[in-house]
Write a structure and sequence with these properties.
By secondary structure, the protein is α/β, with parallel strands linked by helices. Helix content is 26%, strand content 15%. It is built from seven helices and eight strands; from the N terminus they run ααβαββαβββββααα. The protein starts with 25 loop residues before the first helix and ends in an 11-residue tail after the last helix.
């Protein structure tokens, strides 16, 4: 296990904003985890595109890592492709969950396109309604990472660096699109933090509850996890092979 030195970690801020508020389009666009099986299995979608939409000056640093992490757990014999595009979102201050959804569906296409699954990762300027929030998952195919807040989360003397933080937060939010932890299933493993719904209690998992908050910068030794741990992977395997029942799937 990594050894972290935690100076201050505020429990109240860690849960804020990681999931966007429910949308009236929930039936059509789903909830985080609503396309988990579409990614984990190849029955319908043999290919996957990860669309990175970013504001000028906000180019993501975790594109290759996101592809690698999804390749490790998703069955996509046709491959996973990275697609990136610079976008003027025309919102440069404060975002809420509906702003993220609206921007994704304005600038992106269908999540389920023939035999290709499409997920959208937005990197806008500005901050979320709670500025301590680094990333949010707002529906079954959409996350947003707020790099302005990520920069604020950089640790003392650059440890952890803003790049490390961004990579971890990006994979963390992608994990929510995969349904982690217990968003659309119930794990037989006791690894969900009881005080932080949808998050791991293991500090060596990228799904650890503190990853999403600016408090992540208080980890000043060791490295921030950017991988799913064994329990996360066991859940994903169970979902993929059907031994764990999944709910709220847009396609299964």
């Amino acid at each position: 296990m990594r050894n972290y030195l935690v100076i201050v970690l505020f429990l109240t801020s860690a849960i804020s904003g990681c999931f966007g508020d429910e949308s009236s389009d929930e039936e059509a666009r789903g909830i985080p985890g609503g396309l988990a099986l579409a990614c984990l299995q190849d029955d319908k979608f043999e290919k996957m595109n990860i669309h990175f939409l970013y504001e000028e000056g906000y180019e993501p640093v975790a594109m290759d890592l996101a592809k690698t992490r999804l390749q490790e757990v998703c069955d996509k014999p046709g491959g996973i492709k990275i697609m990136s595009e610079q976008i003027d979102f025309k919102i440069d201050s404060t975002w809420d969950a509906d702003d993220v959804r609206d921007a994704r569906w304005k600038h992106g296409g269908d999540a389920m396109d023939s035999n290709t699954l499409n997920w959208y990762f937005l990197f806008p300027s500005g901050t979320y309604t709670n500025a301590d929030t680094l990333g949010v998952a707002v529906d079954a195919s959409t996350i947003a990472i707020f790099k302005d807040s990520v920069e604020e989360a950089e640790g003392f003397l650059g440890r952890p660096s803003k790049e490390e933080v961004e990579r971890a937060v990006t994979i963390h939010e992608a994990g929510h699109l995969l349904g982690l932890v217990n968003l659309v299933y119930q794990s037989p493993i006791n690894h969900e933090d009881p005080n932080h719904k949808g998050h791991s209690n293991n500090e060596d998992s990228v799904m650890y509850w503190a990853i999403e908050s600016t408090d992540i910068g208080n980890f000043i030794t060791g490295s921030i996890p950017d991988e799913f741990d064994d329990d996360d992977k066991a859940d994903l395997r169970g979902m993929a092979d059907g031994s764990l029942e999944c709910e709220d799937q847009l396609w299964s």
